[in-house]
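Quick start: read one record
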Amino acid sequence: VGSMLSSLRYVVAHSLRHSPTDSVVDIEMKLGRHTASVVITDAGPLLSDAGAKLLFDPFARDSSISRDDKTLELFIAKRIVEAHGGTIGVESRDGRTRFEIKIPSA
């Protein structure tokens, strides 16, 4: 099982790679009573709803996902998060793409 730090590094690297060079990638961390979450928000290309569902599948295809998006990093990040009992998701709207990782807090 990979480390949670690796999964965060993969998602942040993806956001940096797909954002304009003069934009900001926001990282927000929250610790709740039962879950911890990290939200990474970028100004990269927007995904369709179908594309967002397929982004973590290295073999899926959708017109809103560029060839550069199909790296194994997001697939591996998802597997790491799930191995720790968590979830990872992505949504695009209002000119921003938002990844959210949630894991049970100790």
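The longest helix spans residues 4-18.
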